[in-house]
Automatic annotation (TrEMBL):
Obligatory cofactor(s): Zn(2+)
Residues spanned by motif 'KMSKS' region: 340-344
Primary gene name: metG
Binding site for ATP: 343
Matching CDD domains: Anticodon_Ia_Met (cd07957), MetRS_core (cd00814), tRNA_bind_EcMetRS_like (cd02800)
Species annotation: Segatella sinensis
Annotated function: Is required not only for elongation of protein synthesis but also for the initiation of all mRNA translation through initiator tRNA(fMet) aminoacylation.
Subunit structure: Homodimer.
Official protein name in the record: Methionine--tRNA ligase
Catalyzed reactions: tRNA(Met) + L-methionine + ATP = L-methionyl-tRNA(Met) + AMP + diphosphate
Amino acid sequence: MEQKNFKRTTVTAALPYANGGVHIGHLAGVYVPADIYVRYLRLKKQDVVFIGGSDEHGVPVTIRAKKEGITVQEVVDRYHNLIKKSFEDFGISFDVYSRTTSKVHNKFASDFFRTLYDKGVLEEKVEEQFCDEVTGEFLTDRNIVGTCPRCGAEGAYGDQCEKCGATLSPDELINPTNKNNPGHGLVKKPTKNWYLPLGKYQDWLKQWILEGHKEWRSNVYGQCKSWLDMDLQPRAMTRDLDWGIPVPVEGAEGKVLYVWFDAPIGYISNTKELCDAQPEKWGTWQKWWQDPETRLVHFIGKDNIVFHCIIFPTMLKAHGDYILPDNVPANEFLNLEDDKISTSRNWAVWLHEYLVDLPGKQDVLRYVLTANAPETKDNNFTWKDFQERNNSELVAVYGNFVNRALQLTKKYWGGVVPACGELQEVDQKAIAEFKDVKEKVEQYLDVFKFREAQKEAMNLARIGNKYITECEPWKVWKTDPKRVETILNISLQLVANLAIAFEPFLPFSSEKLRKMINMPTFEWTQLGSTELLKPGTQLGEPELLFEKIEDEVIEKQLQKLADTKKANEEASYKAAPIKPEVSFDDFEKLDIRVGHILNCEKVKKSKKLLKFTIDDGSGVERTICSGIAAYYEPEQLIGKDVLFVANFAPRKMMGIESQGMILSAVNFDGSLNVTSLLGQVKPGSQVG
């Protein structure tokens, strides 16, 4: 599709819910690609504003407050500040990061709703909705859970199944219950709400998206098409809740704006906040949201496609004064160690924890998340891959080339950039290889292919390493020092190109590298140039740009995840179903006794069996074999008192006659515990 010429670009990144921190799924899906794109536009001297903020209404924050026994305001204050600082420390370069509990937003969203109401856009309807049978409280979609009708997963929410990603309504759930009070029944009661009649805009949406935006990513276009192929239903823009922006209509007491009406308007209100604070820099907010010469781009995850491509554009269209998104480069999901990232299960790598655990390694995470970006399909993050990409790409390719070029210059020329002499074929070949790097990187960034763009940037370092290896300046120095000047000049020009090419992707490393090569200023237009560093320029002291990540660092992160998995298994443990009833007479036939373990040893040629010698109180030692060698070392059990069944018929095990069975319990995590006693009891005592 032909590229339209816009004067400026408004870039938004999905507003994270202020009920928890930001994790790597959020970063890979939204914030890293958005930041790369904005940094790229700034480097090209384009007029751009980058809008972020916390989504502080809706049900998740109320659930968190109830769980912790604190006010909702305390919850959103805590997480807004945590998220904002995490983004700042990670280098996500928002021009404004505000919140939907601000006074500016409250008024803006309220006025927006009132405009739609006064224009007669919204439909007032009384419908039956689920409420708690005991308290009478109306339940939001998020407070209702049940079995997903699409994939059969338990615990699907009334608005979405987190396992398969299906968008749902509470009526579709199988066996719906109240999430907060599972013991309370659900009943339906009539309530009045205001609805956005999406069906009335369906033909327009089809034309606008399916005909007008065929350049959108296939995953985004496909999801929009699947929605538009169905009959769009009216969607409630208000909710029966006590946390949120009050509905500005008479007779709407006890109702607030639906979070998905309120939140995207936060992009506009946050822009207004920025422009009102710095009008001389940013101009009016209307310039960024109402001028047809402004391009609007939303960065979101795939679970938000319907809201940003169907619902929010319909709201903007219905209002009438706003531009519509030109592109919505939504990413798919990132999994963690082959399992779906889940906030509720704490199965995530949290940004604020990462920044503490791996200080100074913001760019490593940015690099890995971009290299594994789930641009058109779900992808997977593993700590081993993180380590491998750092050590074999950032350290061994990029860092290695920079270090070779700078150390050789320091060794032979005292860290001064030498002049470029007569070019040989190997020089011309290397220069030709990186001349078009700018064009290649731009070609991918312009269509939101960040993974490919970063590969092109890294290719510069590969060209550099190959060039130095082929030229062997350490050998040539002995016979032709003048030739080494040219080799190092070209190598240093490549290093300077790397500092520019990686600026959108790895801003911390690029800044560090520019200081090392004494290049305080640069232009994006210079990318591909062989005259970035002037001969005679004194370089700074070479430092390692990246450092190797050792196994113990990775093991620590893997252990943290293992502990989380174990805690989740423990929390979700349910006892196995009770076996069929037996009569008391049958139970009495078992002779369960106390035995004192005199000796215990592994059975040769068996991985499972331990051989026990037991004092059973009869004066004659008893031998019992038990398949618990995977759980205990023999010396752990010697001297213990255990329970055993004394009247099982003897059976041969690995040639040993076993005279009974030791009782043990299998734990939720598959571990096993031999049944022992609380107090001291004589061997041979019966259990009954």
